[in-house]
């Protein structure tokens, strides 16, 4: 049975230079993009972005990955708030699961939800169904 491949992304999106976000937050991002850059041959980014990426990893425990993200973000929360306020940026957590045979546990405990809420983070979850080989 193939475990799903899960990824959690902590993202800031808006009208800013991603290098300015890196300077404010003080840690290097895993990925950045600039408004107007090519996203695909037919699409361009509508907003700039800065993200930390956790995964991908083969697992059914999405909450454990979200907790690792929170452990990274909570110590820098004041700097993230400053960046959010200065640039009026959208800040969220986006989780994805590429599902083959087994689905991940999409259960976040009260403590994890409270931590997300304390940071004023929106949570998105995308389940991608793929055929097994």
If you had to describe this structure to a student in words, what would you say it looks like?
This protein has 133 residues and is α+β, with helices and mostly antiparallel strands. It has one domain (5-129). 30% of the residues lie in helices and 35% in strands. The chain is built from four helices and seven strands, in the order βαββββααβαβ. It has helices at residues 18-25, 62-73, 77-87, 110-118; strands at 5-14, 31-33, 38-40, 43-44, 48-58, 90-99, 122-129. The strands form two sheets. Strands 2-5-1-6-7 form a five-stranded mixed sheet. Strands 3-4 form a two-stranded antiparallel ribbon. Strand 3 and strand 4 form a beta hairpin. It is globular and about 45 Å long. The relative contact order is 0.26. The model has no long low-confidence stretch (mean pLDDT 93).
Tally of distinct domains: 1
Helix content: 25-40%
Helical element count? 4
Strands of the biggest beta sheet: in what spatial order? Answer: 2-5-1-6-7
Q: How many strands appear in the DSSP assignment?
A: 7
Distance N to C terminus:
11 Å
Low-pLDDT parts are none
Q: Roughly what fraction of the amino acids lie in strands? A: 35-45%
> What coarse outline follows from CA principal-axis ratios?
globular
- The chain-level structural class is alpha+beta
């Amino acid at each position: 049975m193939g475990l799903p491949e899960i990824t959690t992304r902590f993202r800031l999106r808006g009208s800013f230079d991603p290098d300015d976000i890196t300077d404010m937050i003080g840690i290097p991002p895993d990925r950045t993009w600039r408004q107007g850059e090519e996203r695909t041959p037919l699409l361009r980014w509508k907003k700039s972005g800065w993200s930390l990426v956790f995964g991908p990893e083969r697992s059914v425990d999405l909450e454990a990955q979200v907790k690792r993200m929170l452990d990274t973000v909570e110590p820098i929360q004041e700097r993230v708030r400053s960046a959010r306020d200065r640039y009026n940026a959208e800040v969220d957590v986006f989780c994805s699961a590429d599902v083959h045979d087994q689905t991940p546990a999409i259960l976040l405990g009260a403590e994890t939800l409270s931590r997300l809420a304390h940071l004023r983070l929106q949570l998105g979850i995308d389940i991608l169904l793929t055929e097994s080989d």
